[in-house]
Amino acid sequence: MPQVQKTIADIQYRNYHIPTLAHGERIPIQRDRGLPAGGEHIFTEADYVDGREELDYEVPDLPLRNISDAAEIQRLARLNRLLDRLVTGSSIATAQLKSALTPQQYAEYLESTTAPQHFSELIYGDGMPSELRDYNRKLKAADFQKAKYEKMASMASSGRAKYRYGVVSRALDKAEHLYEAALERLSEIWGVASPAEQQTLQHWMDREIDLDAGPDSKLGIDVDSIPRVRGSKSRNALDSGLPKLNQSLKRRECQLAAVSAAASALAFEAAEEPVMSGEKLEQFRARLKKMRDSWQTE
Question: Which of 101, 161, 232, 244 lies in disulfide reach of 228, CB 3.0 to 4.6 Å?
Fold first, then answer.
């Protein structure tokens, strides 16, 4: 059971954790310490601001059932074989899962695959808002033009290419114009969005969108100060971290939870089900919705 719990926790971390990525790299915790003699410091999870906390997983302190029914013994054996496969990363057939679970357990498993399992699914589960896709296209065009200018300027300064007077400066002007157009588009998006919609959009940005700050705004029309959408590959993104939200990982998580719950119900006298019943699932969804509504109205 501890291995099953750890495997579920590993999947959840891979799928729902939002890494903190500054300029495409994880952010180390600033500590005052010298390098080890003769080499560089080797970073571990504990060295990063978003480092994962290691947990201990224990065998349930519950009495085992005295199973005399041959059918139950066979079903528990099937469930344990499925757990072994899932823990080792192997896939299982739908028919195998359906035959090992009761009809109610299988129905709850199916419902769990479409229900939110983590708060990050509510924020990022529907994908990037369509308005930001339009902004992203404009921003990518500006980045492309800026890269073109930098290449021209480098070749001109090194003597590898010669351009007519004003060509290089016009390339920079065009890049700045495109950045300005992109920021204007973002201002339009923010201007028509409700406070709740702005909050949702803000979760997708790499920095605070302080368009109302006037001259005190930290946003600008250059490559460093223009906001970027999370998931950006740009080295200028201040925080590009996104959860994975892979459906295959989620399905495996739900399979592990369902099979573990079914095995526990057979093996132990009074096991706490790691998978939610229909009523508990609805309560969980309601709590998530309440949390989402609260941060949208802040």
Answer: 232
Contact 255, 86 (CB under 8 A): yes
The alpha helices in the chain, defined as continuous H runs, are 2-16, 70-87, 94-100, 103-114, 119-124, 130-157, 167-192, 195-202, 247-267, 278-296
pLDDT at position 16 is 94
- Per-residue exposure over 256-289, b if at least 16 CB sit within 10 Å of its own CB, e if not: bbbbbbbbbbbbbeebebbbbeeeebeeeeeebe
Question: Looking at this protein, which amino acid is placed at residue 121?
Answer: E
User: How does pLDDT run across 75-103, given as a tens digit for each residue?
Assistant: 999 999 999 999 999 999 999 999 999 99
Q: For the purposes of burial, counting CB atoms within 10 Å of the CB of 154, is it exposed (0-12), middle (13-18) or buried (19 or more)?
A: exposed
* pTM attached to this predicted model: 0.75
User: How many CA atoms within 13 Å lie on the side-chain side of 121?
Assistant: 17
* CA–CA dist 175, 145 (Å, integer): 5
Give the Cα-Cα-Cα angle 130, 209, 298 (nearest 5 degrees): 90
